[in-house]
Amino acid sequence: MTNKYYMPTRVIMGKDCITENSELLRALGKKALIVTGAQSAKRNGSERDVKTALESVGIPYLVFDKVMSNPTISCVYEGASLAKENGVDFIIAIGGGSPMDAGKAIALLAVQAIEEESLFSGHYENKVLPMAFVPTTAGTGSEVTQYSILTNDKAQTKTSIASDLLFPTVTFLDAKYTEHLGVITTINTAIDALSHAVEGMLSVRASMVSNALAVSCIQMFMNCVPDMLQALQSGSEVFDLQQREQLLQASLMAGMVIAQTGTTAVHAMGYSLTYFKNIDHGRANGLLLGEYLKLVERVQPDLTARILAAMNFSRAEQFQKLVNKLLGAKEKISSAEIEQYCKLASQTKNIGNSVVKPTEEDLRTMFTQSFAN
Predict the structure, then answer these.
(1) Counting CB atoms within 10 angstroms of each CB, which of 9, 72, 146, 352 has the fewest?
(2) Domains (range + CATH), the chain
């Protein structure tokens, strides 16, 4: 299989990197649409900094702050209509995965007439609005991927728009926007990044480059685990800015991994947990990742050993125990729900992208064992 590596997004990292590099926004266009959620970007100061940067170079802007968690198809069509009606020629997305995923879809729909039934087809014209992204959580990696994940009610799952058109032009990483994230959000998003790194190594498209990035991400995550456990025990914030930077950079690298490899059975299974049970995406991945790693361990022990070595573990069961500590009490899931989720997961492309392709019986076992205790 031919390997490839493609990462066209320019990444700027560091404190106050948006306001100190505002000149970069000039190259994107003459009028911006800021895509974000209702509150968090206002609270953490990122929206203020973006506006300051735009004003300093004389670029007018509008704000579309209607993006909800797990954005819907109707949401992105509404944002695209606003962009078209107001002559916007570039997008700035601020937030976690939801605003960034929405921003990509809006950038595409603002310049292409795509019907809803064709939105996930993968067949698009070669045009999109330029994008600048400002991640304010450390987990999704969407700031360096070509995927826009949207809630697809017709299919009763989350579905991906995947196209190289959707790589952002530039991304600004400033860990200060993540400083006041709660302990649970910090852990869930970090596990999301970890899942991306591990799944990247379990993908049929894994390469030397993606594996090197994945191993670095896993090691950075493990460096922060003691403080995650301490924060859970104390119920208070213990992460300093240096750790926040490490988690943000780990998320970035994990995003770079899945931009090359895609995701696997874990995401295929996790989408149902998010869609039907409203379980946070990163938590959903974490609940399932250990059991999938156990399956791979039985079939390809050498591959699992390389992943576990980056964690200083020798068995997948050790990893499972750690994740259980981080995630705490698990949600309840019925046998009927498991049957429904298995059928949905088995129909996804993610299964075919997995080095070890689980059968429907494997999926059933993984769901059952993941929620057994």
Answers:
(1) 352
(2) 10-178 (3.40.50.1970), 183-370 (1.20.1090.10)
